[in-house]
Amino acid sequence: MDILNALVALLNFVIIPASSYGAQLALGALGVTLIYGILRFSNFAHGDTMAFGTGVTILGTWGLQAMGVSIAPLPTALLALPFGIAVTALLVLGTDRAVYRFYRKKKSDPVILVMVSVGVMFIMNGITRFVIGVDEIQFDDGERFLISAKAFKEATGLAEGLSLRSTQVITVVTAVLVVWALFWFLNSTRTGKSMRAFSDNEDLALLSGINPERVVAVTWIIAAGLATIAGTLYGLDKSFKAFNYFQLLLPIFAAAIVGGLGNPLGAIAGGFIIAFSEVSVTYAFKKVAGYLGPEGWQPDSMLQLLGTEYKFAVSFAILIIVLLFKPTGLFKGKSV
Amino acid sequence: MTQRNILMFAAVLGLVLFEGFTGGWNTALGILNMGLISAVLALGVNMQWGYAGLFNTGIVGFVALGGLAPVLIALPPTPGAFNAGGLGLILAFAVAAGAVALAVVINRRARGAVRLLALPVVMVAGFFAYRALFDPAVAAIEAINPSAAGNIGGLGLPILLAWPVGALFAAGAAWVIGKTALGLRSDYLAIATLGIGEIIVAVLKNEDWLARGVKNVNAIPRPVPYEVDLQSSPAFVERAASFGLDPVTASTIAVKLAYTGLFLAVLLALVWLSERALKSPWGRMMRAIRDNETAAAAMGKNVTRRHLQIFIIGSAVCGLAGAMLITLDGQMTPGSYNPLRFTFLVWVMVIVGGSGNNWGAVLGGMLIWYLWIKVEPWGHGLMGLITAGMADGSAIKAHLLESAAHMRLMTMGVILLLVLRFAPKGLLPEK
Q1: Which of B184, B194, B417 is opposite residue A250, by nearest beta carbon?
Q2: Exposed e or buried b for every residue in A179-213, given b needs 16+ CB within 10 A?
């Protein structure tokens, strides 16, 4: 029995990676859920919005690097974020003006809007490829580790190393700040309150003189900001590859639905539920079990429930279970 | 067939003929064959969307499942593979199916705490029993001649038999997913099918025992003669010479034409069946359900059952198209199943062609496939024109030339949005 080492291994391979991944998913799901709440459709272009925002942020990063600007030990990309958010917000506002507004005025079926968002997804995907290409890009130039495995072993004398990447800490800290700001905005400002009113009851909100176009515009700007931040954090943590963001769509939708579509608090909870299940189901617990068992004993199998290739199956299974047993999600969301 | 239909199809045929005269008959027939398969695929999706309003975003998964059939049916058996692990696999799947069935029964019959406790216990125990049987069987199969085989192998049956089997595979998957996700709101089906598509492709990529995963399966038997055999047949060479063709060109064209004939037969049969179905009382009922579910339910129609039915039929047609595709390619490459290409492009085909109209789906499938192939060279030409005035070796010129390859997705997105906005009924509207 070696509880300390088992705990460190669990922290290192499950809890820390799942926390940062969960924060990224939560930010993505918040964007999806806000758009669902206000505009009432599932935005399939959200993954590609994230990719586009990240791509622009990378361009900004390169520009800053060329000018010699650096905020070491933090990655330069954080400094380029406002630029990325601004460009992405302009793009989605333009998209709304050119594409979505027409269907909103016509009061089209949600499924038509979903289809339209597929068209937007294609175009955004094309723009992203056009701007930044399809190759994998590493753009994290900050300090790599806060705690490296080697230093941790030397300091504690444990057999198991613990590494804490700076991007993981940045992700969680940024996510907390963003969520705090978002909730403050939604709960305390006039615009935020009008957004919540619009989401709860559109007709009543219109009657009380809320300008729907303004609410929609603010929603898009916030969604663009959330998508860019989530995408950049994901890119810093792993790497940037446009297609990966399309594949993030499934866990993000799963997170938003698990929490209850249209419910911001649910999106955050859903993001962490999906991330922790995904990581713990695909992690091989052999090492942890070895530490917990009697001295010198190792389990015969890897103790891995599913291969990492099947991580999508985890979010999918959770999604199906929630849809079957609680279609409104864990926190009360909308369901028709 | 109205005059408009005939004109539109004549236009598409004209595009193919134009390609034949300018770019060679080999490429033209290649585009036509893939266009025919795309038309079958679009027919399947049109059944789900056009007849019933179901938004399926997992088409890529059904196409991939259909593509598995030629591998399992037509490939010669791997010697010893079945003896090594076949029984173990069958047992493992039986255990898994039993556990799921038991869970369903518990879910229906048991109440309260019993249900809450028994359900996870059955599922978890079933999963571990399944893995205990499945893992050694897979290891045994994958150990057999891993460089050339390492998979369970096929049955060695004629490849054409694989087409209906591919449809059956897809139908089975559609039944499972339809049972769970239909009856919920429309976006949920879209999201759930997006997931099932990803998972099926992941299974094909990673389960090496099944179809060798990303190691690919080559040399899948063909329903048509091989070019080499034709070239060595004196009778064929003589016939080719009488048309003034050299044997190599003639053989490739003959093989492609044979495929065209097969695909055309399937497509026409499907269109005939769908037209009959759509004009029957059943078709009227489907449209009634699509246009107003509440009213149709009030008239005593079982909306969820009908949705499940059409979801299965449509997916089966997608599976059929997947099997045809693998037959044409002669190889199974799971890495090539990209959702943008196999799900969302098909959506563009259906919307552009005219949702709800079978002929429209066929037209959209062929037209959009033609554009998908041609947009890239056109993009290169356009970029060449734009950059002609720029200095050689400038970074912008290089970047622009390089990005011409990405024009495809953007063009498809623009086409989809334009059609949705200005001609939401498509090129051939439903009457």
Answers
A1: B194
A2: beebeeebeeeeebebbebbbeeeeebeeeebeee
pLDDT per residue of chain A (336 residues) written in tens, 0 to 9 = 688 888 888 888 899 999 999 999 999 999 999 999 899 899 999 999 999 999 999 999 999 999 988 887 888 899 999 999 999 999 999 999 999 999 999 988 888 899 999 999 999 998 998 888 878 888 888 778 888 888 888 888 888 888 888 899 999 999 999 999 999 999 999 999 999 999 888 889 889 989 999 999 999 999 999 999 999 999 999 889 888 898 899 899 999 989 888 888 999 999 999 999 999 988 888 888 888 877 777 777 777 788 888 888 888 888 888 877 787 888 876 644
Q: Which residue from A329, A227, A335, A333 is spatially nearest to A273, judged by alpha carbons?
A: A329
Same domain, B54 and B127: no
Structural tokens at position B345? 């492009």
Chosen from B194, B208, B396, B414 to mutate, greatest number of chain A CBs within 10 A: B194
Residue B276 to residue A104: CA distance in whole angstroms: 37
Q: Which amino acid type is present at position B340?
A: L
Cis ω on the peptide bond leading into residue A73 (within 30° of 0)? Answer: yes
Q: Are residues B261 and B221 in the same domain?
A: yes
Distance (Å, whole) CA B54 – CA B110: 33
CA distance B100 to B106: 10
CB-nearest to B191 from A42, A307, A310 is: A42
Provide the shortest C-alpha distance from residue B207 to chain A (in Å): 10
- Provide, as residue numbers in chain B, all residues whose Cβ is less than 8 Å from the Cβ of A253: 191, 194
Question: How many Cβ atoms sit within 10 Å of the Cβ of residue B80?
Answer: 16
Q: Are residues B138 and B150 in the same domain?
A: no
Pairwise CB contact (< 8 Å): A133 & B403: yes
Between positions 111 and 150 of A, the ones with CB within 8 A of B are 111-112, 114-116, 118-127, 129-130, 133-134
Identify whether residues B302 and B357 lie together within a single domain. Answer: yes
CATH number, domain of A38, equals: 1.10.3470
